[in-house]
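Lab notebook, bench 4. The sequencing result for the construct came back, and we need a structural model before the next group meeting so we can plan mutations. Quick request posted to the team channel:

Model the 3D structure of this chain.
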Amino acid sequence: MSPDPRFPNPTRLRLRVTATAESILRSGHPWLFADSVREQNREGQPGELAVVYDRQDKFLAIGLFDPDSPIRLRVLHAGRPVTLDDAWWRQHLRAALDRRRGLFDGRTNGYRWVNGESDGWPGLVLDRYDETLVLKLYTAAWLPRLGEIHHALLTDLKPHRVVLRLSRNIQEMAATRFGLREGFLANGENTAPPPDPAQAATVFLEHGLRFEAEVIRGQKTGFFLDQRENRRRVETLARGREVLNAFSFSGGFSLYAARGGAESVLDLDISAHALEAARRNYALNTSDPSVARCRHQCVQADAFAWIEGGGARKFDLIILDPPSLAKRESERARAIQAYAKLAETGMRLLRRGGILVAASCSAHVSSAEFFAAVRGAVRKSGRPFEELETTGHPPDHPATFPEAQYLKCIYLREQGGAPASAGRAED
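Done. Here's the predicted structure in token form:
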């Protein structure tokens, strides 16, 4: 490998690791933690390529070094030695893009092009919203390489604009060492001054519905693209039903339910900003007769408290999709209890014959633990429910190692009759 002018030390950064870490890397895991490094030939810089050698001094893996992160190396390649030249990087990007070919038709132009480690781009996410690309970085190791990444995106995807997003843990370094902050990119560098977030939203299509993505200040990269297929499933269940969309954010589930023939939808969220986005998204789609007919209501309240309050109003379809309840391992047990409690209280608002949709985006809570919590709440209720299905990650959000597996959803319908309003259910 030829010297990289961004990293003037000509001596290749070499790492040796524990026997356990060798086995983990051979199994295909993309992370090497700091406490697994037992030998390092010199100090390394963020974004520098580092090679891991095994106990027989043979090549094991190569990745991006990050001296300031507990994840010391983000693996790009393991196995036989390779040269990470321009051709390799271009092919590496095309491989991720090719995995999405044929997944979407012209009615969907909002989806994920690159899903971090699971696509071989550890700590990097790339989402498409029509002609806008959002590049989000979760590790400082990518910051020195931003220019060439930007060039590759312009060459292969030809977007109208590229927006840079940075995780909180790297924002200070990005600003002080690289002069980067969140906003539009031009030639791999930020525009100046950063664009007004209110003017930076873009409208995209998802299964023919129009949504607004707040690409600079919105959560994730501006929208929750990962729930696309669950929203579509809700559409098939909504006809004739009164729907509660708890933790509604910008109203995605509600719009699908409305198009599916729901009588009414209620968006419930603590954020006034999110509810305003839900109203705008609803207004974008009133040309659809079903959306126009469906009554749309927004309630600003703490969803946990509102549901537990158990008012007189009941619903035929309830969606419970809270934000992550376990952002670290120490919160896992409490989160499992919270998911069970939420399902238990949610069922109290469900009419006879109604459907409960419960989702979790907590990576520290496994699918088995989450589904067990919800099923336990069902048993505790004493009401007869049938399990319609469980779902995980959509195809543009692959999860190839345990820590990447965060999304899960379960669909439950009460047995024993149709909803209270005749013709609401399409069973």
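The CA atoms of residues 98 and 418 lie 45 Å apart.
Will bring this to the meeting.
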